[in-house]
Amino acid sequence: MRASTVDSRIAALRGSLGPEEPGARGLERVARNPECMRLRALTIVGVTPATAAKEIYGEPAREEQSPFALALGNQFEKNLFDNSAAKLLQLYRDAGRLTTNECKVAVIPDLAPPLSSDPRKLLVSLGRRQSETIRLLRAKAAGNKDAPNIIIKPRMFVRLLGIGHAIEPDALIAADADRFYRPIEVKSYPDRAGKTDSADVRSACRQAAVGVVALREAIREFGFRDVDVAVPAIGDLVLRVPGSMSAKLRSMTLRSEAASLERAIDEAPRNLDELEAMLAPGASLDDPLILDQIPTSYRTSCKEHCALAGKCKQQACAAGEPAVIGDMARELLAPAGTVTRALDLMNGRGVPPRTAEEVALAEQLQEAFSEYRRAV
Amino acid sequence: MAVDLETIARLVAFDKGKAVPIASDLQIVIQPDALVLCCIALAGEDTTVHVVACGSIGKPAEFLSVPDPRFRDDQYDLFAWIGQRIEQYYADCRRRGTHPQIWVSSDAAVKHLDVLSDRLRYNRERADVRRLGELLTYATERFPVGGQQALYAATSALRQHYATGQQAAEDAHLGTLLTWIDPPRKTNILAAVALAEQTPMGMKTDPEFDRTKLDPVVRAYNEARRAGASTAQLKRRAQNIHDALMTVVSPIYDATQAAVEILRTRWPRRLLTAPQLQDREAQEFDNFMQSRDNGFFLPTRDKPKAAALKLTEREIALQTVEAAVCIGDRVALAKARLAGRILEGTIENPRRVWVRPRVFESTFDLISSQRVLRIRPRDELILLTDPRQRVLVRNVERQGRRTRVQLEIIKGKNAVGLPSASSIQVFTPYVPDWNSLTQARIQLAERLAVQPWTHAENGAMPQRVPSQLPEPADLLAAVEALR
């Protein structure tokens, strides 16, 4: 499949909306709910759920962060990366991951012209960031001892349908003896060991996993075969000590996160074909009626990451999907299909059970309902 | 996977457009003078409190805010203010020989208090701030323990009593829960819930509110402060911040009070074991305060022995409370029956067989129609209505839709006697044993007197010592017999 062909197919599906880079956050979002065709479709065509909510459905997107949280996050990151990432280097030295001699730091934004509002200059600047990143990655892959130990804000690509989507992990790290880099994800979440918010950790891990996938793609292009060995599914989370600007380092295994991302990326070509087959010729996703046709898979966790969660919930409620009362109900009531049908089976009304699965479900529902009525 | 009662209740609630009860008795003990505490942090700064509302249940709140909690002195003054109120409340509780109870809006607010207690109890700059951290530690350390009465999130307390027609995760928002419990008339429940969701009910403000309302006034205050504005000017700007924050904290305080009121007024039946729960909490509180009086230090992290003790304490507490709720609450009993955690059925073939002089064997069959049963031969069960009787499961035989369980009475043969034929009996694996925690603590203290090599620093694996016992002929049977 030629990229340009895919590009035109994607542009046609996007309609009047401009392309957006999904970024690491957008790519990891797909892996969170791989069953949601609507989310996959939007990611493939390069539209974020926030844009879809705002531009297609005309609803306010509630995805923004508080200015206080943003300021804190920026300050934390600046604190780590300032002075050639002195604090980040110290953190790795304290953890025994780098020696005092391993202090080579490359700050990619410093190697390229500053970002500009002029699109032409912006393109030049981003292109330079990309080429500098590739140069440094290539040096490390070639075993060059001068390759940096830490690369701040590298610009890498994850290929989706043959089209490279840019991602900028916070940093990459490798000791001189390491074969290649591993991603670092910096988050200003307070690190409370076992009490750290699991949703925050999950989200950071998935973003780091996007970095793993991008590194694997890069090293594959350099001619490496054993990419899984050179870039194991491991990432470093740098979180904040509660109530302070000090950082804590945690290495995380990202095997399942990286696997689910790679699976989602592998399935993308089939998704594009399915998407086109689903829609009428010439239909594009910028039409709310068309977007409504694409099936969703509303889940409890959707609110954590998707700006369309509210819209999908409304549709799930209108359709009486069992997911609206919980993920457990979604599984238990699957033979009934809808809440209305499940209620009919429970109350012994409506059309009698049509399948063996419905018969079994009806028996269970009636037994449990009679227990419930007896108890309350 | 069998359909559980929670799913049924949620289905019914969805159908009715109104929350439905999921308990028959009030599962918690509401202290008449409990403290409602609503703290709002600055976004991203989880160890801060920007505004606080504090008051007893059924009473109006006292409010205090700081213009910018990132200024440490102002923040510490606010902590000291909260500390005074909690200190006073704890002292009153101690005087009366009871325990304190703090109510917050949600689990997120509990987590916020936990962060604060972790952070403040090691404060070296102000003793009153450190004291607040220590006092909060009592409530936050008790929170994960089953049956605790020290710290309640209004959402969790309501969820113990009501099932809504939405996802369990959505019940974490107090506003939506209250809307499901008391839905507005002539309004679609889902629309009402969507509207309720717009109001923050945790410990943070809405990002949009921060951007449009809070950030401009905080910025204005900080600029005036940097420019050396007069006290009057600063006071006026601080008042603007306070007014903005009041629109966030007041609804949360009111909603938390509303939740307590619902539980207080609509649940007249108390759990049978409520007095035991209260006694245990009072004892735990007394122990904690005694430790503080004696100057014992609260560790950041538990050492292995303390951790083992706390884990055991949590396991036992959970088991005890589950058993206690099962005895008193009809819905909990129904849940256990449906999940197969208890055994219920009709008695058949009760017989007393002479074995030798003065020794009889009492056995009977129990015919259960439960779809799911989690019992195996050699399990020991206790008669729910009279815990003096214990039985041993001899055999479990599935007969079509019924299950025949052969049981042998091992305790209470005379005191309780054989059950009569055709009677319906319920057996449970656990009954609440309020002394088991003390026994477990003694046992663990003995077993952990010497730190195991797994937890010792540079602990080497001990040499293998082959057992001197003869090898059993049937290894599998020997392992089974250990159960």
What does this entry show, briefly?
By secondary structure, chain A is an alpha/beta fold.
Provide keyphrases for this structure.
heterodimer; A: 376 residues; alpha/beta; Lambda Exonuclease, Chain A; two-stranded antiparallel ribbon; 16 helices; 54% helix; B: alpha+beta; Elongation Factor Tu (Ef-tu), domain 3; 6-stranded antiparallel barrel; 5-stranded mixed beta sheet; 45% helix
Quaternary assembly? heterodimer
**Large-scale geometry of chain A:** globular
Taking the alpha carbons of the first and last residues of chain A, their distance comes to: 62 Å
**Might you state the CATH topology name of one domain in chain A?**
Lambda Exonuclease, Chain A
The description of the largest β-sheet of chain A is:
6 strands, mixed
* CATH architecture level-2 label of one domain in chain A: Alpha-Beta Complex
For the report, how would you describe the main beta sheet of chain B? 6 strands, antiparallel, barrel
Instruction: Write down the domain tally of chain B.
Output: 2
Q: Which geometry of chain B do the CA atoms define? A: globular
Order of helices and strands of chain A: HHHHHEHHEEEEEHHEEHHHHHHH
Instruction: Please provide the count of β strands of chain A.
Output: 8
Strands of the biggest beta sheet of chain B: in what spatial order? 8-9-12-11-10-13
- What separation lies between the terminal Cα atoms of chain B? 26 Å
Question: What is the averaged pLDDT score of chain A?
Answer: 89
Strands, helices and their partners?
The complex is a heterodimer of chains A (376) and B (483).
Chain A: H1 3-14, H2 23-32, H3 37-45, H4 49-56, H5 67-94, E1 105-107, H6 108-111, H7 119-141, E2 150-152, E3 156-160, E4 163-167, E5 171-173, E6 182-190, H8 198-221, H9 227-230, E7 234-240, E8 247-253, H10 255-278, H11 288-293, H12 302-305, H13 309-319, H14 327-332, H15 339-347, H16 356-375
Parallel strand pairs in A: 1-2, 6-7
Antiparallel strand pairs in A: 2-5, 3-4, 5-6, 7-8
Chain B: H1 5-16, E1 20-21, E2 35-40, E3 51-56, E4 62-65, H2 72-96, E5 102-104, H3 107-120, H4 127-142, E6 151-153, H5 154-159, E7 162-163, H6 174-181, H7 189-196, H8 207-226, H9 231-266, H10 274-293, H11 304-328, H12 330-339, E8 343-356, E9 359-368, E10 380-383, E11 390-399, E12 402-411, E13 424-428, H13 436-447, H14 475-481
Parallel strand pairs in B: 2-5, 5-6
Antiparallel strand pairs in B: 1-7, 2-3, 3-4, 8-9, 8-13, 9-12, 10-11, 10-13, 11-12
Helix pairs in contact in B: 2-4, 3-4, 6-7, 8-9, 11-12, 11-13
